[in-house]
Amino acid sequence: MLLAVDIGNTSTKFGVFDGDDLTFKFSYPTGETPIELADEIAGDITSAIACSVVPDVNDQLAGLILKRFDAKTIFVTNDLDFGLDIKYEPLDGAGTDRAVNAFAAVEEYGTPVIVCSLGTATTIDVVNEKKQLLGGLIGAGMKTSAKALRFNTARLPEVEIEKPDQLINRSTETAIQAGIFYSQVGLIETAVARISRQLPAKPKVIATGGFAEMIASECAVIDVVDEDLLLHGLRLLNTRRNA
Question: What is the three-class DSSP state of 120?
Fold first, then answer.
């Protein structure tokens, strides 16, 4: 069985694959030691592959996986064969998670495709019909925006991230929630519309990440919500490496 690990800025997600099937998944805050890792996972782990945007925790996690399952962890780098012509400059300057998401989206949904990853940061990446990963946009995610308002103003509180009941609000807290939420909706809708005009064919738009479902509920340009896109991308990369 394969253990796929997505080490993100806020949380680390684990997925256990039996062949092509995602049989189990869970997450924990990045930087905390998952002492219950062996108990959480049922089955024999024979290999592990990870994508990380927090290099400082890589060795700790790899050591834990080796100790618990006697499996070496392969960390994805941007110079792997994704089957894409990656246009980032420099190649290692982009988060590996963006490359894996783009690769997975092409494999699962075809081209052209736009991938919107909605987490700590909001990233939008574009692959054209020639399988060229053209690049994209990076913006603050909703939790990041909430923290920025709290720490850069004298009186505004940090709020929980929730979908607002209405656009026009009468309290400071709900007004902030609405502002953060609809800022994300506006970013996605505006960027997708403008990107689509630069492509010769209509792209499919995939949303992933912790806030994907919430944003997609009010964002008509999103075609598919795939919260496990990166985990499946790691599985597909592992299969590609071993072919």
Answer: coil
CA distance 212 to 49: 24
Q: Which of 97, 125, 165, 223 is catalytic?
A: 97
Stated pTM of the model: 0.93
| Beta-bridge mates of residue 114 | 126, 205
Segment 190-201, tens digit of pLDDT: 999 999 999 999
**How many CB atoms are located within 10 Å of the residue 58 CB?**
15
Tokens of 102: 């783009």
pLDDT tens digits, 23-57:
999 888 888 766 566 566 767 899 999 999 999 99
124: tokens are 């939008």
How far is residue 149's CA from residue 156's CA, in Å, rounded to a whole number?
7
pLDDT tier for residue 165 given thresholds of 50, 70 and 90:
very high
Name the pairing type of β-strands 204-208 and 113-118: parallel
Give the separation between CA 57 and CA 60, rounded to whole angstroms: 5
Q: Are 81 and 168 in contact (CB under 8 A)?
A: no
Task: Determine the Cα–Cα distance for residues 70 and 28; give it in Å rounded to an integer.
Answer: 21
Residue 166, helix vs strand vs coil: coil
* 81 has catalytic annotation: no
96, 76 contact by CB (below 8 A): yes
